[in-house]
Write a structure and sequence with these properties.
heterodimer; A: mainly beta; Methylamine Dehydrogenase, Chain H; five-stranded antiparallel sheet; globular; B: mainly beta; Immunoglobulin-like; 3 domains; seven-stranded mixed sheet; 40 strands
Chain lengths: 414, 520
Amino acid sequence: MLEPPVLLWSTRRICFAPEGPLYMTRFLKSQLLMSAVLVVGMLALPGLAFGATPYVITNDDSSFPSTGVSFYSVAANGTLTLQQQVATLGVGIGGGFFGASRIKVIDGPQQPCVYASEAGSGSIVGISINTLTVGGSANGSETDSGASNGMGLASNGQFLYASYGDSNTIGAFQLESGCSLNFIGDTSVTGVEGGQVNAIAAHENILIATYTDGTIESFTISGGVPITNGDKQISTATVQSKDATYPNSIDITSDGHFAIFGDTSTSMVVEVSDISSGKLAKTVVQKSTASINSSNVILSPDETLLYVINTQGDSVSALFFNRKNGQLNPGCTSGRIRGHSVNWSYLAGPALINQKGTGGGVYVAEFGVQSGIAMVKINVSGKTCTLHEVSSSPFANPNSPGLLSIGAFPPRSF
Amino acid sequence: MRVVPGWLGAILLCGFSVVQVAAQCPDRPVPGTVVNDPLNLTSQNGALNAQLVLAHSVDGSGYTHYCYNYSANNQVFEAPTLRVNPGDRLALNIVNAIKDDDEMKMAMPDAGKGCGDGGAMTLNSTNVHFHGMNVPPKCHQDDVIHTLIQPGSLGFQYNVQIPLTQPPGLYWYHPHVHGFTEFQVNGGAAGALIVEGMEKIRPEVAGLTERVFIIRQQFLVPWIPGPYQLSLNYQVAQAIGGSKPIIQMKPGEKQFWRVANATLQDFMPIQYQVNGKPQQVELIAMDGYPLAQTRLTDTILLPPASRAEFIVQAPPQGSNAILFTEDYSTGPTGNPDFKQSLGTVQLVTNQGNQEASHMPGASAATSERVRGSDLASQQVTAKRLLYFSEEFGGTNGPIQFYITVDGQKQKVFEPNESPAIKTKVGAVEDWTIENRALETHAFHIHQIHFQMLEVDGKPVANKDMRDTIEIPFWEGKGPYHSVKVRMDFRDPNIAGTFPFHCHILLHEDLGMMHKLLVEP
């Protein structure tokens, strides 16, 4: 008869980035070898500029002793290989809000950078994707803090923004050369009913925020530091559900016409707001009982699909999206993603498999004792679709005690 | 669920400054020793008078204990078994001896009009719920909404009138301060309450050796749903080195085991195994209510707070017998409940170390029917749909645990809220309770037993009377799992306001609870 150990429930693993000269020598050799292979392989990848190495990148969000950002190389068939963790010396918290993306990839004119928030130390680190080295790190004001639930990031290409739930502030940082940042100021915010600021998203001169009480709000960011547009409102789904649903993550269409909210809910709820006026209009609600909790959403590159990560429903859904009128229509839902409740507890942030057309599906962060990245591909035929997890999924992330946010390089164009 | 609310995290950051105490808990039994029954306090001349002191301490391993201390003959006994007869009066003085020196203690809103000391519901305040008892939800009896006993007071007197119609069986008592119930039960504050007379309903138990087993659960990191230990009458069931509690029996002897699942959240498929194989036991009662007829079964699922009373037979010499709980999946977002041995049977030729108590001998079976035995034939006055649901905005929250009456707002419990359901004495209602969450929940209602009618829309083979029932998790597709039960509000004795909730205590503390008003 098998019996369990005395401790019946394992705690989170905390792993450490390999360091030291021996590791680096091995790493450099493998880097050279891998580069040669990748030069051939990446030319075959659709939508990828010549010379750019594609990555899936994770904010490892470790709380002890320090954290880092892991880079996975992407094979032609989309499978991932952990290439390197860049140690960042900051400290994460290993958890927090699902919808607040802690990573932002920017393919800037000078060089591509990835920015990762470190809520434990309150810092944001910038890493050069060309060299996989830290370019700089910045903190907000002394009182800016997201230590309880993480710091969400967003950018309009000129500024980087960070949401701090504990201090209820949004910080603004000037993007500078070498992937460094310069803090320029912050704005105090709060939800209609006192909610904490959660996720943020930016497009050109507008920044949109969600709050934990169901509030959504937009800001003008033409001057850098956000200034409210005075459109703070409780979302339609929050009102309809009598507070049992609230917007969490945000995506914005390429033309800045619509903002889309993935809601935390006991079912699958997505809301769309027309922002063509420069302000948030009342949201239109799309509900489904296909799964539970839709805290993360991401539009496909061609904006015909909205991928919905069913945080508690251990599945991924896709809704058909009409970018002209903002309408969502039922699509498809995957089967259960492998490893739920064994290796991980929640599905969290997504990244697109590729950056053109439907995106080919999504990579999804798996949060848990054994964090990893699931790969879920999509097949679309007319007005129907199917989603399935590939056989080689998931790809382990031993560097993260609780993975919530991932990004892709090159990033989506909007 | 494996989440830590922010306020709970704040308590942890405070460290053990919040758990200093004025009184100490007794040492717990050494692992690998003979399991003794709790001390029995038996009513005399129609009354049981006792004083229990709620104390609080940290043991040598750093684990937090809460305990009900009973003092007699210069000895302190933890969590005695209270034994009463139908019609008795239970006079219980509860003294809260927790040292109240925590400046950072958390508080929940109060419930308006007070009972007892009043004040805020905090980590250090307490009260008592007599789980499963059909007694009035009133101050000094079984009110948990308004009653607060604060540290430093002289004590609070419970005067509980046990109904003449109270079914004989195993009940239990535990603290029930909203927001903080789990803290005190986690440390062990729970004990058995037995209403005598089972042998009059089920003569097959007459004269048997009686054992009372209380299974408790302690999170090793205080109050965090994670690594845990189960114990049997306070003896750790899986000690380092493999020591297990020893249950003594004579070869071939039949014993009457009364087992309470007093864990925080463990769903336990209980088995009595001999040589690794589950044995048929004679199931006598569930949740303190004698079954319509004795049932043979090899597995008894006990959700948190549930009880089972059954007859087991010791194997012949040379065999290995254990009390065992099987694996139980509580769903994708629930904590796994692992199988393990709870105690090993040691076959002894004499009485052994255990001072065994025995059920009374055979007597004339009562001619009265057990309370509620006519429920199935009653006219139903109302039907309701309730459902459990959960949502998580992040790994640390915001977390919402809901139990909702269909058509009403999904909201967490607030002590000063209006009753979610209003009914009247005399009502007989059919409730369908769905689970729309990806985690199994345990439905419990105070003051009454309910009758099982259907599971997932299909009639059950055994219409047992229960006070706590599991509702399995939703798989993410297909219909929700559900139970249909018949609620019996005919007894004027239970008029008043009382709660129904999930008996996963963290869920209860976080608001998966509402009130019901039974108008006179």
